[in-house]
Amino acid sequence: MTTIRKIVSHNLRILRGVRGMSQEDLSAIAGIDRTFISDIENAKYGTSIDRLESLAGALGVATWEMCHPQTADRIRKQADADASAATSGKPAPPH
């Protein structure tokens, strides 16, 4: 069984990576300590709704997407399509 903590952890790590942000970058934008972000990404701790909203806003997604099990895959596929379109010169398919 996958817990919400694990889903949030996975989504946070993937979204941050796709956005090209370090934990320090995300910390500065979201106003959350970098070590706490690391702890969330490693599923060591859960987080409050307020912090989840801050993280989601900093990453450019809706708060609910942080808790959805398919968010990371969708964002990764979207990023891959955008990168492929950028290198091929063809427009990316609509999201």
| Low-confidence segments | none
CATH evolutionary superfamily? lambda repressor-like DNA-binding domains
Over the alpha carbons, how many angstroms does the gyration radius reach?
14 Å
> Which CATH class?
Mainly Alpha
Instruction: Give the overall average pLDDT.
Output: 90
* Domains, number: 1
Judging from the principal axes of the Cα atoms, what is the shape? globular
CATH fold-level label: 434 Repressor (Amino-terminal Domain)
**What is the H-and-E element order?**
HHHHH
| Separation of the first and last Cα atoms | 30 Å
Oligomer: single chain
Percent of residues in beta strands:
under 5%
Structural class: mainly alpha
Number of strands: 0
Question: How many DSSP helices?
Answer: 5
Largest sheet: none
Helicity, in percent? 55-70%
Q: Which CATH-level-2 architecture?
A: Orthogonal Bundle
Task: Write up what this structure looks like.
This is XRE family transcriptional regulator. One of its GO terms (molecular function) is DNA binding. InterPro entries: Cro/C1-type_HTH, Lambda_DNA-bd_dom_sf. By secondary structure, the protein is mainly α. It has a single domain (about 5-85), classed as lambda repressor-like DNA-binding domains (434 Repressor (Amino-terminal Domain)), CATH 1.10.260.40. Helix content is about 65%, strand content about 0%. The protein contains 5 helices and no strands. The N and C termini lie far apart (about 30 Å). The relative contact order is 0.16.
